[in-house]
Amino acid sequence: MLKEEKQQLFKEALGNYPTGVTIVTAVAEDGTPVGLTVNSFASVSLDPLLILWSVDHRVSSKDAFINGETFAVHILAADQVELCKTFATPNVDRFSKCSWNMSEHNVPVIDGAFAVLQCKLHQAVEAGDHTIIIGEVVDIDIEKRDPMLYHRRNFGSIPAQFYTNIDEKK
């Protein structure tokens, strides 16, 4: 099988894997806020609290994440599709299109997310054409909102039939 064929099958397989969607933010060396849409997000450890995500080496803001001390992961709410698309679009003043503030941990925090995990950089690991960023969670905020789901290039909320009440099964 040719490399291009494998890559296409890889994209098809993983594009059919439902994920949550995040926006990761940080501050560049010159003090400007940076952020991008990320769905390569996962928990790593409870002790200490560690998460991970990966950044493509072609992303212009990658150094802010790889070399910075802090960043924030925003687990998007179901109604934040336009914000998700904005932070996935290159050459756009992303922060002018949303409400945000600088946190006490010196990271840009966007309003309205389902959850925000403020992190300090724990480790950066080179992996192919990406760098895996591992962060230690130092602060967590959660809103009572439905999280966003991404599946087959579509965004939405988690369908109601996937929620079950454990007490009903007894």
From TrEMBL:
GO function terms (MF aspect): FMN binding; riboflavin reductase (NADPH) activity
Oxidoreductase in keyword set: yes
Chaperone listed as a keyword: no
InterPro entries: Flavin_Rdtase-like_dom, NADH-dep_flavin_reductase, Split_barrel_FMN-bd
Keywords, ordered alphabetically: Oxidoreductase
Domain of life: Bacteria
Gene3D superfamilies assigned to the protein according to its UniProt record, in alphabetical order: Electron Transport, Fmn-binding Protein, Chain A
Flavin reductase like domain boundaries: 14-157
Record-stated family: Belongs to the non-flavoprotein flavin reductase family.
Protein known as: Flavin reductase
The species this protein was found in: Siminovitchia terrae
